[in-house]
Every structure is written in structure tokens, then in C-alpha cells.
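Human: My hope is that you can spare some time for a protein that puzzles me. I am handing you a single protein, as its sequence and its fold in C-alpha cell form. Could you go through the record with me and say what the backbone is doing? Take your time, and here it is.
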Amino acid sequence: MKRLVSLFSALFFTLVLAGCGSSGKNFPVVHVGDIQNGVTTQSQILDWFGVAFKEGVRNGNPMWTYQFDTYNSLGIGKDNSKELTILFDKDHIVRAYRYASNMD
């Protein structure tokens, strides 16, 4: 009987772990309000947020994306996400940025 209980406990625990996950790279948000278009430098962004999760180019300008998502496929709890996308100009100054989050 103990063996059966242990087996069911292990199976339940495995299902719970398999149902939870995350993607991206968590990043601090304390300096999001400090970003200023035309003022903030790429170096400051790197200091404040670390290395971007994704880097790309849009219209010839560098674009960095910081993204972190958590999810639960079993429906227990809620899915959360936060994303910061920053477009720089040719002089490595913030041209535009967008931050969205449903995390508390």
C-alpha cells in the first residue's frame, strides 16, 4: 500500500512540474520609468537590464527585447508575462521603447 501511495505521489508531482514553465530571461523593471527617448544610451540599458533576451534589427537600427513569461498548462494559477522592447538609433541612443506586463 505504501508503495502505491508513493507511486501516485510521484506521478502527481511529475504532472504538476510538467505543467509549469517559463520562457525568456527574467529582468529587473526598476529602471523602466527612467528610459527616455533621445536621451538614454545603449550602455545605460545594458547596465540596468543586462544582456537582452533577443537582439535584432529594424529598419537598419538595433532592437533589443527583454522578455519573461511564466505559464501553467494545468490551469492552476495564471500565466504571466513582461516584455521590454527598445529600438536604438544609429548613435546607440534610445529611439523608442515599449513595456508591457501583467505581473504584479
Observations:
- Helices lie at 2-18, 42-49.
- The CA atoms of residues 21 and 64 lie 23 Å apart.
- The beta strands are 20-24, 54-58, 61-72, 80-88, 94-101.
- The chain has one domain: 21-101.
